[in-house]
Design a protein that fits this description.
Blueprint lengths: L2 H15 L12 H5 L37 H4 L1 E2 L5 E16 L2 E16 L2 E13 L12 E16 L2 E11 L19 E11 L2 E12 L8 E2 L3 E12 L5 E16 L9 E17 L2 E14 L2 E2 L2 E11 L8 E9 L34 E15 L2 E13 L7 E2 L5 E3 L8 E13 L4 E12 L1 H5 L6 E11 L1
Antiparallel strand pairs: 1-2, 2-3, 2-23, 3-4, 4-5, 5-6, 6-7, 7-8, 8-9, 8-10, 10-11, 11-12, 12-13, 13-14, 13-15, 15-16, 16-17, 17-18, 18-21, 19-20, 21-22, 22-23
């Protein structure tokens, strides 16, 4: 299929996927508030939140407020008593991708209900999705049928003036900080939930989360998603909010990851499985000052994999500035990511960084490589193109370049699977990529996105026999309230 025909197929499928208009705007997540919209990936809608249960619709308790928009009565439904109310919502998403001469189509629906009874709350969200035309056939990440995505209960207990403790238990999507280590995998068709418990302390400028989480593995059929018997994660994530309106934050965290059947390829062994117990310590600073913003994070990992000691690390930097006085309000930023790789095969040490459960679409709409044994330099420019029928139109243009951090290790994808071993080539350069994304927030609920991505393999991938360029044309319609 030619690029022109692929682009027409994407546009046609997008128009066929359009759904009715609708609903009210909710507060954004903490990370969305901390950084300008241009830092948020194009696949993340600019309204509402990803996890949904973090949205607070109690401001609609006044009946007059519920007359502001047709969906407002669905966001706050008063029940038996003043403190008993129900909130409902829905996401409908259709996506088309044209690559490698094939056109893949994805659909998903995620309705949810949020019941509040005083300080007690029950949240339930379902998932129904499907996929067609996926290269190599759809995996459970593309298509899992009808399943329970989230179902948990929590209770909030005041323990001092201005300080509360919230206890949660059940299945839920979890987003920690920048989602470099623990994310919702929202971009792919099937998000990643966890079964577990959390205790969240909120004391004004300080928040802390103590958690024990077990990932839920998606199955190929309906109602067959099951918690992992192999993997678990536990630890603490704390945040200190700074400045007026929480304009900046400092995060510190410690977490333990246990995998009873981890792949030994990253340790330089010939293959097989082994027990991995990996400790991650991290420090992050993010925020904004005037027109400038930043997000800096450093992570160190220790522990053992099949008896071999682990010494790994990762550093990420995102910094930029907006120019509100210029036409189109340019937003110029630079992203740099470094993740360590194994130094030498069979040396008895593990130096490869493990990103655990990172967000989907890690580097953009097209993410051919994952954050393990990688150096990425990623300049980006975002322009506000004005409004179309009252909805904001935004253009994002990015360039990316990738290298291996260590010649002694191979190349991996975002989920952590090894694509090519270190012996496949001697070069360090992996390739370069260009991407353009146009987003139109047609209404408060309906967002339309179109993107074009082009990846040119570098020396190592050419030596490994993967020298064919990758083109991706994608279109997406997302309706959420």
């Amino acid at each position: 299929m030619s690029r022109r025909r692929a682009g027409r197929a994407v546009v046609t499928a997008m128009l066929a996927a359009l759904v009715p208009h609708g609903a009210a705007r909710a507060q954004q997540s903490a990370d969305q508030d901390a950084l300008p919209r241009s830092v948020i990936e194009a696949w993340r809608p600019p309204t509402l939140t990803i996890t949904r249960y973090t949205e607070n619709w109690s401001s609609l308790a006044d009946p007059a407020a519920r007359r502001a928009r047709w969906t407002a009565p669905l966001k706050y439904i008063p029940l038996a008593a003043p403190q008993v109310w129900l909130s409902t919502g829905l996401e409908l998403r259709a996506r088309v991708e044209a690559t490698q001469g094939q056109t893949a189509r994805y659909w998903r629906a995620m309705p949810h209900a949020d019941l509040h009874v005083g300080r007690f709350r029950v949240f339930v969200q379902g998932l129904a999705n499907a996929a067609q035309g996926v290269v190599g056939g759809p995996s459970p990440v593309d298509r899992t049928g009808v399943d329970l995505l989230q179902a948990f209960a929590d209770v909030t207990v005041p323990i001092a003036p201005g300080t509360t403790l919230r206890l949660e238990g059940g299945r839920q999507l979890v987003s920690l900080g920048s989602e470099r280590l623990v994310g919702t995998r929202y971009g792919p068709n099937t998000p990643l939930p966890f079964d577990g418990t959390r205790a969240l302390l909120d004391s004004g400028s300080y928040t802390a989360s103590l958690f024990y989480l077990v990932p839920v593995a998606a199955g190929p059929h309906s109602m067959d998603d099951r918690r992992s018997r192999q993997k678990a994660l536990w630890g603490i994530y704390a945040t200190r909010w700074l400045g007026s309106g929480h304009a900046a934050r400092i995060d510190a965290y410690a977490m333990v990851y246990h995998d009873r059947a981890a792949s030994l390829q990253q340790a330089g062994f010939a293959g097989g499985l082994g027990d991995e117990r990996r400790i991650t310590l991290g420090l992050r600073s993010a925020g904004r000052a005037g027109s400038a913003y930043w997000d800096i994070e450093a992570m160190a990992q220790g522990g053992r994999l099949a008896g071999a000691p682990i010494h790994a690390w990762s550093v990420a930097l995102r910094a930029g500035r907006r120019f509100p006085a210029l036409p189109a309000t340019p937003d110029l930023s630079l992203h740099v990511d470094l993740a360590s790789g194994d130094k030498a095969p069979a040396d008895g040490r593990v130096n490869g960084f493990n990103p655990l459960f990172p967000k989907g679409k890690y580097f953009g709409e097209l993410s051919p490589l994952g954050p393990r044994n990688l150096i990425d330099v990623h300049p980006a420019l975002t322009l506000a193109l004005g409004k179309l029928n009252g909805g904001a139109v935004q253009l994002g243009v990015t360039g990316m370049a990738y290298w291996r951090q260590s010649r002694g290790d191979g190349v991996y994808d975002v989920p952590g699977r090894q694509l090519h071993p270190a012996t496949a080539g001697q070069a360090r350069f992996l390739g370069k990529q260009a991407e353009a994304v146009v987003t139109w927030q047609a209404t408060r609920e309906l967002a339309l996105t179109a993107s074009a991505s082009h990846f040119v393999p570098g020396g190592f991938l050419v030596q490994a026999g993967a020298g064919r360029p990758i083109d991706l044309f994608a279109g997406e319609a997302s309706f959420r309230f």
